[in-house]
Amino acid sequence: MIVGVGIDVIEVERVKKACCNLRFLQRVFTEEELKHFEKCGNNPQTIAGNFAAKEAVMKAMGTGFNVGWKNIEILRWSNGKPYVNLYDRAAHQLSYIGGKKVWISISHIKELAIAQAIIEG
């Protein structure tokens, strides 16, 4: 049973400009996400995809930004497929809405990044 669906799209250029501010990166992304970005050459499309994924998860949980950016972590398996780790308030919210698993899909083109989150109950 699906208990939540969220989608987000963002302009890559907007994230690229925000990345000039180190505080943005440190406030929004976990250490593991930052390591992944570094491995990818700090590609703005990758960073924008992760940002969109975090927003999609928040929308699927129905929380807005109340769960905290770093409480939602978007990482990749060795084959490149993204997955989600939830911590603290985000993990609590998932449980509260009856969610068991968060599925995530991320895509981007030169100008846009899009992500969809589906919460399975």
Strand content: 25-35%
Class based on secondary structure composition and strand pairing? alpha+beta
- Write down the overall mean pLDDT: 95
Q: Work out the count of structural domains.
A: 1
CATH-defined architecture: Alpha-Beta Complex
Structure described in brief:
The chain is an alpha+beta fold and 121 residues long. The protein has helices at residues 12-18, 22-28, 31-39, 44-61, 88-96; strands at 2-11, 72-76, 82-86, 101-108, 112-120.
Describe the protein in words:
- There is one protein chain.
- The chain is of the alpha+beta class.
- The protein has a single domain, classed as Ribosomal Protein L22, Chain A (Alpha-Beta Complex).
- The protein has 5 helices and 5 strands, in the order E-H-H-H-H-E-E-H-E-E.
- The strands form 2 sheets. A 3-stranded antiparallel beta sheet has the order 1-5-4. Strands 2-3 form a two-stranded antiparallel sheet.
- Helix 1 crosses helix 4.
- The longest helix is centred in the middle third of the chain and has 18 residues.
- It is globular.
